[in-house]
Structures are given as C-alpha cells and as structure tokens.
Design goal:
Helix content: 25-40%
Shape: globular
Largest sheet: 9 strands, mixed
Number of domains: 2
Number of helices: 13
Number of strands: 21
Strand content: 15-25%
Length: 414
C-alpha cells in the first residue's frame, strides 16, 4: 500500500471557491461561525459547523447536527456548487498569508502507514473530539478537513510542485481573513506515479496539525474493514485527506501563556524566585523573544526579559529542551504551582497570531496576573519529538496560515 495516492476530489465548481472555503472547524466557536456564515449560503461552515443552521443552544454533538451536515453537503453537490473530479488527481495547494507563501501537495495518505507510525504523531488526542470527527466522517461518508502534514527535505518533490503550479490555477480565492488559497491539478499519470514513488521512498512524514482527524480516519477505516471482511484491495477509507508541505516552508508562531494569579505571591516575590533559574532584565517595551531559552514576562505593567540558565536545559531530551517545557519545568510548576497544563484552570493560552498586545490587554484588564511570551517551536524540534515517539506538551505549536475547509474533500464511496 503506497504512502500516498491520488483521488477524485470534491471541490468548488469553477469560480465558486471564494464563496465556499472556510476556516477549519476547530478555530471558530459556534457563535463566530454563525456570524462568518451570515448571508453566505454556500460557506463550508454549513457543513463543518452545521449547528449554525439549527436553533441556538443545540448541542453540537447531537445526532441532528451530523444529519444537518450531511443534508447541507448533499444540497451543495446537487446544486452544482461542489463538483467531483472525474478521475483521480493530485492537487498542488498554495497558501499565501502576507509575505509568507507555502506550496504543498493535497493527497490521500495511508491509514496503514499512520497506524504503524510511519506518519508520525506528536500529540495525544481527546476522546470527545475524536468521537466527534468519527461521527462527522460517517455522517458525510467523506473527509472534509485536511490533516496538515510535513515532509522532510525532498528537492525533486519541491521541483515538481513548483512546475505544476506555474500555469493558470484551477481555483484561486481569497478568504474573508485575507488569506489566499490557490489550487492546481496534477492529472498527468507519469507525474502522479513519480510523486507516489518519491513519497514511498521517504522513511516518514510528520503530522503538524490534525491529530483528531487522522485518529478518527483510522477508527472509521477499522470499523469498515471489520464490517466487510470479504473486501479485497484498497478502499477509499484506507486513506485520509492530507495536505503535505515541505517542512522548511511551514510557519509556526509563538504560543504564549497567561496566568490567573501569582500563587499567593507579590510581583516582587515572584521576580525574586524567578531569578533562581533565570536572568531577569527590565525592558522598555514588548519584544518577542529573539532566541531559544529566552522568554518575555509581562507583570504589573512592566515587561521583563527572562533567560534560562543554560545548564538547566537538558539538551539530549527532545521534549524537555523545548521552550514550552523549560518554562513549565523551571517556572510554572515549581514557582506558580501550575503542573497540569491540560486541566489547570489557572493558565490559559494565547496564539501568537494575536500579538503581544493581546498579552498586555489580558493583564492590564485585571483578568490575568501575568503573561509569558515564548519563541515559536521549530519544525525541526517537532520532528525530533515525533522521531523519538514522544509527545509534545499541550499548546506547543500554532501553525499559520490555516488550511481552508471545503477547497478539496475526500469522498468515501466504496
């Protein structure tokens, strides 16, 4: 079974991409999705967040919600807003966010490769979120949210994608957040075969975002195989929807922390305790940390630069040496008594897309007592954690730009 294969994608009809594409289902609340989809009957949010078409207060995990998603998908297909390619293709997908551009391959990836960890993971999943994705896939008999994947250095793949994206795109749309999503098709059987061969030669690829979607696809495939033990050959459910970018093009932003209280300490006492493991320097304004091991602290209207003492960083452990781990192990846990990032209500997380001004705002309002700014996690560090078979701490990575839902979907039809 190859690592990837082409597929007959379901996608917006010519000229309809801008009407259809929407942010990923998990970056908007129901209320935000309802506002974004207002007066947009063909927004993919009607499929990915279908509770917006049901009475306010509807449980987003209720059977009615998944049924509404299936109804909306059928409506968009029956009216020709979404159309399926007649033959299997690979798709070149370019995302442009300001000056940042990344170009990758839309393909279906092997569930079997995922199950044996050739498609490497770096996060735990939550059962309720995984169950939600299983129900969504089964209700639609489709995978509509792509998993974001990175491939290691592969110059020939990069060259093929560059050539394929040199001509007129099949679709080109700017979403309402200003991010541009452009798609080209690779129909040539020889080029498809070469891409399949090149990816088969890779020892591994790496999930960047979409662990719940990939885990759900694996569960759906297992259930369908169990229900039809006589099935022969590869089926559509044996693969899941992915967008695979070269790792060096991917952009990870900082993922910052804000804390509700100082664990009973004054600001002065906190700073004294921090100086045990960090150098502490007052700075005149907000500055993003410039290098690994450096952190920003906003406390009582003042910014500080913190630098961890180098001898405290366990350089051989790919998880413990991450800045998110260093902050937790050397400050949050021993000083603020915040030991469980998943469950402790005294800590919250702010994606770097919001900027350092958001940290100042949360503290100045009195909602939070202090904020910590971090360097972004590097893709190389994520890959090292995955190679070690380890798990990253919660909220370690914030990828931008986000992929569009609705640009290409994968139907499960056998």
């Amino acid at each position: 079974m190859p690592l990837i294969r082409p597929f007959s994608g379901l996608r917006p009809a010519a000229g309809r991409a801008a009407e259809v594409i929407a942010p990923p289902y998990d970056v908007l609340s129901t209320d935000e999705a309802r506002v974004r989809a207002a007066d947009k009957p063909w927004s993919f949010l009607h499929i990915s967040k279908p509770e917006i078409d049901l009475p306010a207060g509807t449980d987003p995990y209720s059977p009615e919600v998944y049924a509404k998603a299936a109804e909306n998908l059928r409506r968009m297909m029956n009216t020709g807003v979404l159309a399926r390619d007649p033959a299997p293709c690979y798709y070149v997908y370019r995302v442009t966010m300001g000056a940042h551009v990344q170009t990758g391959l839309v393909a279906t990836s092997s569930v079997a490769a995922y199950d044996i960890n050739r498609i490497r993971k770096h996060e735990f999943t939550q059962p309720d979120k995984e169950n939600d994705r299983v129900r969504q896939i089964e209700a639609l008999s489709a995978q509509t949210g792509p998993v974001l994947v990175a491939y290691p250095s592969a110059p020939e793949v990069d060259t093929i994608l560059a050539r394929a994206s040199d001509g007129t795109p099949e679709s080109d749309g700017v979403a309402d957040d200003g991010i541009r999503h452009t798609l080209w098709l690779i129909r040539d059987a020889g080029v498809q075969a070469r891409l399949t061969q090149l990816f088969d030669a890779m020892p591994a690829v790496y999930i960047a975002d979409g662990h719940h979607r990939s885990a759900a696809a694996s569960r759906v495939a297992a259930a369908r195989r169990a229900a039809d033990k006589s099935a022969v050959g590869e089926k559509s459910h044996d693969y899941f929807l992915t967008v695979i970018f070269p790792h060096h093009q991917m952009q990870i932003l900082d993922y910052n922390r804000v804390v509700v209280d100082l664990n009973g300490m004054t600001a002065e006492t906190l700073l004294t305790k921090i100086r045990t493991n960090f150098s502490v320097e007052k700075i005149s304004k907000a500055e993003k940390p410039a290098r690994t091991g450096e952190f920003g602290l906003y406390l009582a209207g003042q910014w500080y630069r913190l630098v961890i003492r180098p001898e405290l960083v366990p350089t051989r452990d790919p998880v413990a040496r991450l800045d998110v781990s260093v902050l937790s192990d050397q400050l949050l846990a021993p000083i603020l008594n915040i030991k469980d990032l998943r469950r402790d209500k005294r800590i919250q997380f702010v994606g770097g897309i919001r900027g350092l001004a958001e940290l100042e705002k949360r503290v100045n309002s009195g909602e939070m007592a202090a904020a910590f700014a971090l360097c972004p996690t590097r893709m190389e560090d994520l890959m090292a954690v995955a190679e070690a078979g380890a798990v990253m701490p919660p909220k370690s990575t914030w990828f931008e730009p986000k992929l569009a839902d609705g640009l290409v979907s994968h139907m499960l039809d056998d």
